[in-house]
Write a structure and sequence with these properties.
By secondary structure, this protein is of the alpha/beta class. It has helices spanning 13-24, 57-71, 89-109, 148-162, 184-192, 211-223, 241-252, 263-278, 288-295, 304-309, 318-331, and strands spanning 4-8, 28-32, 47-50, 76-79, 116-120, 168-173, 175-177, 195-199, 205-206, 208-210, 229-233, 239-240, 257-261, 298-299. A seven-stranded parallel sheet has the order 3-2-1-4-5-6-11, with helices on both faces. The longest helix is centred in the first third of the chain and has 21 residues, at 89-109.
């Protein structure tokens, strides 16, 4: 009998790849989506779509109980739903932390007996590494996120770890890229138009992970006995910001004009814009916290534990993954 898996946030960039990987591994897949969600990347046969009220623990508990009566018990849950952008600080905590708590409590209250609950968190929940030594971030490091997004993810992680007799995994990927991603697309579009933009002239090192390696690793972890553990996910290589640009240019076969903006004027400009937005109770997408995150010198991490535990290694380094990504963007007229 097939194992049943619920994937929340299934219609998004990463979620749609989780659905593909789960189907390829023989799971019976239940895709948690919103009424307004596009199913453009969820056209495969064998997907059962479910709409849950993550904003209400009481309603969600009833929905999960009804779901159990109809379809039976879920064996696994990958909780991938969340937000990376918000105009208000409170929204991060409502969605990333609050909805996670509601789902966990609802699963327990509805009588679902899971083999594993997998929370897709973020490296931002730990915070950046040392900018002097450039030592990669370790799982043992004290978690000190520098943004409300990171703090909301940490809040969800901490709650999950306190729930008794609830088998879980916490997956904290570094920057995820790949086909269907709209965030990294903007950088690629800029280079494709002949410009290469950087913030600050100082050294910056980052880790990356291709979406297919991320989803493959998580599905492999579900099959293994380990529970109540946390993992970073990266391809194991530390890239300079310039190296990322070089790889994108090489894949695109483009030359570009490199422009480096001094960080201090950018910080002052962003602070001014944010002050104006605050009059209306909102924050711009590029706010002081976001700027501090994207400009921090050290976002490298050590993900060796993950690859050792699944006895595998990343199949894509940045050159390979970027090539597939750019081909997809071109074939789908995104660039």
């Amino acid at each position: 009998m097939k194992k049943k898996i619920l994937i929340t946030g299934a219609s998004g960039f990463i979620g749609s790849f989780f659905v593909e990987e789960a189907l390829a591994n023989g799971f019976e897949v239940f895709a948690g989506v919103r009424k307004s969600s596009s199913k453009q990347f969820l056209q495969q046969a064998g997907i059962t779509f479910l709409e849950f009220s993550l904003n209400s623990k009481e309603t969600l508990t009833k929905e999960l109980a009804q779901c159990k009566d109809i379809y039976g018990n879920f064996d696994f849950v990958i909780h991938n739903a969340g937000i990376t952008q918000a105009s208000k600080k409170e929204d991060f905590f409502t969605v990333n932390a609050g909805y996670t708590k509601n789902l966990i409590d609802g699963l327990i209250a509805s009588g679902m007996k899971l083999e594993k609950f997998c929370l897709i968190s973020s490296l931002a929940a730990t915070g950046p590494g040392n900018k002097e030594t450039f030592h990669p971030i370790q799982l043992s490091d004290v978690q000190q996120p520098i943004s409300d997004y990171g703090r909301s993810k940490l809040d969800a992680e901490q709650y999950l770890a306190t729930v008794p007799d609830f088998p879980y995994l916490i997956i904290a990927p570094t920057g995820v890229y790949g086909p269907r991603d709209k965030d990294f697309l903007q950088f690629i579009k800029l280079i494709n138009s002949g410009f290469e933009l950087y913030l600050g002239a100082g050294k910056q090192m980052i880790s990356m992970i291709y979406v297919k390696d991320l989803t493959r690793a998580v599905i492999e972890l579900l099959k293994l006995p380990m529970v109540n553990q946390r993992y970073f996910v990266s391809d194991g290589i530390h890239y300079s910001k310039e190296k990322v640009g070089e790889i994108v240019k090489d894949v695109l076969q483009k030359k570009s004009f490199k422009l480096t903006l001094p960080l201090t004027p950018v910080i002052l400009t962003v602070a001014g814009i944010e002050k104006i937005y605050s009059i209306f109770g909102k924050r711009p997408f590029l706010n002081q916290q976001k700027l501090a995150e994207i400009s921090h010198p050290n976002w490298t991490c050590n993900s060796n534990d993950l690859w050792i535990d699944i006895t595998s290694s990343p199949q894509y380094l940045l050159e390979d993954g970027m090539r597939e990504t750019v081909i997809w963007y071109k074939e789908n007229n995104w660039i």
